[in-house]
Design a protein that fits this description.
Elements (H helix, E strand, L loop, with lengths): L3 H12 L3 E5 L15 H16 L5 E4 L1 H5 L2 H17 L3 E8 L3 H11 L10 E4 L5 H14 L2 E7 L19 H15 L9 E5 L4 H10 L5 E3 L9 H5 L3 E3 L2 E3 L1 E5 L1 H4 L2 H4 L4 H18 L2
Parallel strand pairs: 1-2, 1-10, 2-3, 3-4, 4-5, 5-6, 6-7, 7-10
Antiparallel strand pairs: 8-9
Length: 291
């Protein structure tokens, strides 16, 4: 199997789309159309209906693990099944689990969350690098062995990110710049034939100028960009750190969750046909806005 970066770049070019569809089952936002059963069944029905609508249009889905974890054992089984269903439809899967630890615990997380044969199958996993370099090594080893990808939190979209990430060091550079320096050798080691690395970073759409600066610092890095739409980032903001390729934008993914899968007209749908049409419009409009 080709490396994650090469597979992702091919998928982006084939669809001319950098859309990452966030699958975040907020229980208070799932349309009443699906809430005729228990919570877990409502989540399963809603999430599985999204997969065929996204297939062929979006390159990637990104399930938010916490939203499934809150449902207990059934929720985690839904998450594993959803990932397999998405892959069967030709979608790639980024597990948004933000794992991070050291030693054997980090290795166990990597085994459980990385690769098509993992307990929770994925093409890539979000990780937290703020424990230091040794916390990353088990994930990198598993990513290399399974041709998977990693996205390390770097400059996140939440306002509180400044509490740690923006602390200036002795050389007046913010902490997240030093984290970028720390991961650069890992990124370079996982660069494949696409020219991009399977070791990527999470950079919020709410910081477009910093995205541009990070692109200069990490030119081969894939960016996973949250914060577009509902969190306040515009399309121009979100695209700031990407690069132009032969088919359009590439070099990363722009995530849309609630704005994409829970638009107002879908909430108001009285039947599945109307709901599907609303989601299809939302997908088409979002892809067009990010071109």
């Amino acid at each position: 199997m080709a490396g994650f970066a090469a597979r992702l770049t091919d998928s982006i070019r084939a669809r001319n789309s950098v859309l990452c569809a966030g699958i975040d089952p907020h229980m208070d936002r799932i349309p009443s159309l699906f809430q005729q059963k228990d919570k877990a069944s409502a989540v399963r029905d809603w999430a599985f209906e999204l997969i065929p609508l996204l297939a062929g249009s979006a390159p990637v889905i990104k399930p938010q693990a916490a939203m499934f974890e809150q449902l207990g054992v059934r929720g985690m089984q839904i998450l594993a099944d959803l990932s397999q269903a998405a892959m069967a439809e030709g979608l790639m899967v980024i597990m948004d689990a933000k794992r991070g630890d050291i030693g054997s615990t980090a290795k166990a997380y990597a085994e459980g969350w990385l690769g098509h044969d993992a307990g929770f199958p994925s093409d890539a996993l979000t990780i937290n690098p703020y424990l230091g370099r040794d916390s990353l090594d088990p994930f990198v080893a598993k990513a290399r062995q399974s041709d998977s990808g990693l996205f390390a939190l770097l400059r996140t979209s939440n306002p509180g990110s400044q509490d740690v990430q923006m602390i200036p060091s002795a050389d007046n550079r913010p902490v997240f710049h030093h984290v970028a320096d720390m991961i650069r050798p890992l990124m370079e080691a996982l660069t494949d034939s696409s020219g991009f690395s399977s070791f990527g970073v999470v950079v919020g759409a709410t910081w477009p100028e910093e995205s541009v600066a990070l692109r200069r610092m990490l030119p081969e890095c894939l960016f996973l960009i949250p914060g577009y739409g509902a969190q306040g980032g515009s399309a121009a903001d979100a695209l700031a750190g990407l690069v132009k390729g032969p088919e359009g934008w590439e070099g990363g993914l722009i995530n849309s969750s609630r704005g994409l899968t829970m638009p107002a007209d879908a909430d108001e749908a009285r039947n599945l046909t109307d709901w599907r049409q609303a989601i299809q419009r939302s997908i088409s409009d979002t892809i067009a806005a990010l071109r």
